[in-house]
Amino acid sequence: MKFFTPSTIMRTLCIAFLAGIAFASWGFAFFVIVSVLGLMFIIGGRQRKRFQVYIILACLVVAGVSFGLWRYTESYPSSKSIALMAGQEVAIKGLVVEVDANESWQHVTLTDLSFGNQQLEDRLLLTTMLYPQFSYGDQIQVKCTIEAPKPIEDFAYDRYLQAKDVWATCFSYQVWKQSEGGGSALIATLLNARINFIEKSDQVFGEPHASLLAGLLLGEQRFTDVWKDRFLKTGTTHIVAASGYNISVVLWIAMGFFASIGVKRQKAFAFLVASIAGYILLAGADAAVFRAGVMGIVLLLAHQTERKTSMVNILLVTAVLMLAINPRLLRDDVGFQLSMASTIGLIYLSPILKNKFKWLPKKLLIQESIIATLSATFASLPILILQFGTFSFASLLTNIFVLPWIPLAMAGGSIATLIGFVSIEFGAIISAPGGLALTSMLWAVKVFASLNLYLESIPLAITIIALLGWGIVLFLFIYNRYSYAPNQTLL
Fold first, then answer.
1. CA distance linking residue 439 with residue 219, whole number of Å
2. Does an H or E element contain 370, and which?
């Protein structure tokens, strides 16, 4: 059998590229490189011409790692970056691309920056008063002192912003709107459609149901502090965010639903891909939404092929493409990490759990929901613990009660809201199925949150024990998977 197939070469380059990005991100990714070398040893040990195999694989690894290191280096600010003006008081013009307002302030992200006749690269995050209100496409001028983002206590706020290409911040009351209607006409149209959809859902469903629907469909954060606290305590914040975790679990349940009613895989696949495309457009097509949609399509492709080798290829290529566009996602974007982890869990763990939980009833998608929740939660557990240092013992139970309702809530809520554009009264009548699903989800979150099973701070010892336990289970999974096939390699 020919060893250096295009698939093997591609996977080796992809893994090496990821190792390069990891090394540049953390500075101590030796374990990643050792893993690559270990794979080389496993592969090379089964070849007759070991020396030639090692040489070729070493060249591929060096090429991939070098490209990863170079790409990460290119993500640093250039000589024309706004970051180099830190500490200076300047009057800068820019185009509004994002606005995040709370009860007191507006946080406005600016791009296409200019200072006099000088064009500046990267983005500026402006904090200013609530009025006048700004929106996408506004051209504004601000006079302020440029500051470099800094960590906030234990939160790496600077790295969080850098992953969004924001390398400078400023606070100012001296802000003037110069013009409107700039930017992309398509994005402006999508954002207006998003705003109109949210306003109409408010009229059809009322609160807090409309806020939950906006979170499910659009990742819009509109809940009161009380409800935010409830979602946090039950480990269900992912369902009201535009995350790959959320969309992956929902798609997994949806695929189980189509299979249960006898819909052919090809038809279900086409429908779900079209639904993801519509979701990306409706949600504004920003980076987080786009990433969630991409991971959803990856999951669908993996499910469509039913070949583990194809799944590996799809995941690796997806990760490489996303990191080639923005190499800072690997370390500084929790959403990317959760998307990858939950997708891997759904692809590799769910078939094993399905065999173990055959006794669960398939009615009302109970089996699919529990399996999807367990798979995604287990795979994401180390990231959740390390990134947030918190844990909800009610998370699993709450998700099992909540997730089965999501497809009905999203479908019923969307239909009722769209009908609401024609008639609010008729939309309210049609909203019964979606309203039932939303009410059930809110009830479950409220009840489980009241149990106070949430740890705001996990002791280091418990963290280590939990991660060790996760590692042992993962090792046993890999061992059992490959031990029965002595001639099978990991690549």
1. 18
2. helix 366-388
